[in-house]
Design a protein that fits this description.
One of its GO terms (molecular function) is oxidoreductase activity. The structure is a single chain. The chain is α/β, with parallel strands linked by helices and 139 residues long. 38% of the residues lie in helices and 9% in strands. About 17% of the residues have low confidence.
């Protein structure tokens, strides 16, 4: 029952999303736009990660991917309803939880997003494989 409710909430958010996906990657940054001198931004298609996670976890994942040169454009669900991500053709999406297959299907079929089929970031090996998959697709 809980899995279905989570999928339904994300599906509802997907259908309500109305922002223009052409804004591209890096249109909003949770870290206030600050970069360390060793970090380098690589231009790539917009990336939206989906899955309900606490804001501290989303911030940590966003910063870790930033260190790898990957900008997370948005998260779904967003922290605020008014900040729903731009979804459409040319937007890459990837789930962070293993039970979101229905949401992934909705993103592919209804929104025409491109799904990055990556292992889930569980444990050190899973996290490494997850980040490497992004690098292969986006950089």
């Amino acid at each position: 029952q809980e899995v279905t409710d989570a999928d339904n909430k994300l599906d509802g958010a997907l259908l309500e999303s109305s922002r223009d996906p052409s804004e591209g990657a890096g249109s909003s940054r949770s870290d206030g736009g600050r970069l360390n001198s060793v970090e380098q931004i690589v231009q790539h298609p917009p990336l939206v990660l989906f899955g309900s996670l606490p804001s501290t976890v989303t911030n940590q994942l966003t910063m870790e991917l930033q260190r790898q040169g990957i900008t997370v454009s948005e998260w779904l669900p967003s922290q605020r309803y008014t900040e729903l991500p731009a979804l459409g053709e040319g937007v890459y999406v990837c789930g962070v939880n293993p039970f979101l297959s229905r949401t992934a299907t909705t993103l592919l079929r209804r929104r025409r997003c491109k799904l990055i089929g990556a292992p889930f970031p569980i444990g050190p090996d899973g996290t490494r494989a997850w980040v490497e998959k992004y690098v292969l697709f986006l950089v």
